[in-house]
TrEMBL record:
Biased composition (Basic and acidic residues): 184-194, 356-367
Similarity field: Belongs to the tilB family.
Taxonomic superkingdom: Eukaryota
InterPro entries per UniProt: CS_DNAAF11_C, Leu-rich_rpt, LRR_dom_sf
Gene3D superfamilies: Ribonuclease Inhibitor (3.80.10.10)
Full protein name: Protein tilB
One Pfam entry name: LRR_9
Chain spans, region Disordered: 180-246, 340-367
Keyword line: Cell projection, Cilium, Cytoplasm, Leucine-rich repeat, Repeat
Residue stretches of biased makeup (Pro residues): 232-246, 341-352
Organism: Amphibalanus amphitrite (Striped barnacle)
GO CC annotations on file: cilium; cytoplasm
Chief subcellular location: other
Protein's GO biological process: outer dynein arm assembly
Length: 367
């Protein structure tokens, strides 16, 4: 069970420098909270409170939040509307996707004179015949129900047939509450452990084809199973006589890179002379998340980390690291690393031929 602690509230109040007494907005959604507590004493100035996607079964301990304007309790396990009379400034209440079947409990919101928006979509009561007419008449201050504005003409029509609608609502609510009573009794009964592996093929098909009612109890049990499946057991301790895993060497003692491929990935290195580049094609798992890959191109070698496991290839020629590119196929998952080679240096000019000397026969001096 996750409790609302001062540490949790301060952690979610970072935008307010972790000051909670002056906090005006607080988000505690998806925290697996099962009970509302302490907030009406610690955070009296709250104007907006997000508590959606938790395991809360009852609205409580919010009546002192006099300045609260918006309360979001969507996706919880609440079965009736209660204990909101003290929220004098409440203008918007979101109870989407809960288990509210006791529609008459909504009448307690008559005390919230400033309430303008109410969301009950996805609750059992929203399926009752005449549900919208009943709410429109019961809460005259309401302007929007389930995201749709209540028109003046709609409210007049609802008032004219309210007596008949009231009887229908009470009858439907009575049937639902009887159904919930039976569900609770069934849930309290001890259920034998089921081992699917020991079933016959016919029993297994029947077991998986059975539907389970979606109730606060089944939702709590499903959450418990998910939480248990997420719990990762600690790694087993290595026996003292077992040698630790051998580290993978990427370079020699004198600093020269090595070819490394411990996972046996298939690859191809193409020397594209026309484009003057080297192209490495590395076959990866198609559904491997790209965020699990790291590529490092060096002048003499390329290293690819796949889930922290290295693949390294020594290149036959030096490449330009700044001009190298990495692409991945969305169809096959193949990784393509394109590494341009340095431009070939211009050939040094041929030495000039020595100038031909004029060979004239030696003329004897005149006497």
């Amino acid at each position: 069970m996750v409790l609302i602690t001062e540490e949790l509230v301060r952690k979610r109040a970072e935008h307010n420098e972790k000051e909670i007494f002056s906090l005006e907005e607080l988000s505690l959604h998806q925290c697996d909270v099962e009970r509302i507590q302490h907030l009406d004493r610690w955070c009296r100035r709250l104007r907006i409170l997000y508590l959606q996607s938790n395991l809360i079964e009852k609205i409580e301990n919010v009546s002192r939040l006099k300045e609260l304007e918006y309360l979001n309790l969507a996706l919880n396990s609440i079965e009736r509307v209660e204990n909101l009379e003290g929220c004098e400034s409440l203008t918007k209440l979101d109870l989407t996707l809960n288990f509210i079947g006791e529609l008459t409990s909504v009448a307690s919101l008559q005390h919230n004179e400033h309430l303008r928006e109410l969301y009950l979509t996805g609750n059992p009561c929203a399926d009752y015949e005449g549900y919208r007419d009943w709410v429109a008449v019961t809460l005259p201050q309401l302007q929007t129900l389930d995201g749709t504005r209540i028109e003046h003409s709609e409210r007049i029509t609802a008032r004219q047939r309210f007596s008949a609608v009231q009887d229908e609502i009470i009858q439907q609510q009575k049937c639902y509450l009887e159904k919930r009573r039976k569900q609770k009794e069934s849930d309290r009964e001890a259920k034998p452990e089921v081992n699917v592996d020991e079933m016959t093929e016919e029993e297994r098909k029947k077991f998986w084809s059975e539907t389970t009612a979606y109730t606060p109890e089944s939702r709590r049990e499903l959450h418990r199973q998910v939480a248990a499946s997420r719990a990762v057991p600690p790694p087993p301790e290595r026996p003292p006589w077992e040698a630790p895993p051998r580290p993978i060497r990427l370079v020699t003692d004198d600093g020269r890179p090595l070819n490394v491929n411990p996972t046996g990935l298939k690859f191809e290195l193409e020397d594209d002379e026309e484009q003057h580049r080297l192209v490495l094609r590395l076959d990866l798992y198609k559904h491997l998340d790209t965020s699990l890959l790291e590529v490092d191109v060096q002048p003499t070698h390329v290293t690819v980390l796949v889930r922290q496991r290295p693949f390294q290839l020594v290149l036959p020629e030096e490449v330009l690291t700044d001009s190298s590119t990495v692409q991945r196929s969305q169809v096959t998952g193949q990784l393509v690393v394109t590494m341009p080679k340095p431009a070939p240096s211009a050939a040094p000019p041929a030495p000039a031929a020595p100038a031909a000397e004029d060979h004239h026969p030696e003329v004897p001096p005149l006497i």
